Amino acid sequence: MMTHTRYAFIKANWHSYIVDRALDGFQELIPAEQVDVFDVPGAFEMPLLARDLAQTGRYDAVACAAFVVDGGIYRHDFVAKAVVDGLMRAGLDTGIPVLSVSLTPHQYQETAHHNAIYRAHFIEKGREAAQAALKITETRISLSRAA
Description:
The protein has helices spanning 16-29, 46-55, 76-94, 112-146; strands at residues 7-12, 35-40, 61-67, 98-103. It is an alpha/beta fold. The chain has a four-stranded parallel β-sheet, sandwiched between helices. Helix 1 (16-29) packs parallel to helix 4 (112-146) and helix 2 (46-55) packs parallel to helix 3. The two termini are 20 Å apart. The model has no long low-confidence stretch (mean pLDDT 88).
């Protein structure tokens, strides 16, 4: 992979002790010096920043990580849908891949057991996002060469 390739990684600070593990997994495959990291308060703030970062032309892909759980006072499925739809729109509007590493479990409790499960899962999801970012970058480069 070319060393000038850059990626943006946005992570929501809500449940950061879990969400930050996605960045760990992402950087297992993409070196940290190729990744610019941005923090936002929560998942809802990711699509706008993802669009803004994609529009700069600096990044080959933007990955976004958040953990949207049922807090009891709002419909977390509504928030999750809005976020994922917004991320997709940011990618389509800018022509830069915007990848979601957002998990929205229906059954989450703030226990050591659940935290361990989701921390491990976010590492894996971060790896998957890195694989997707690398593959889509490679594919787009080959498409542009063929044109």
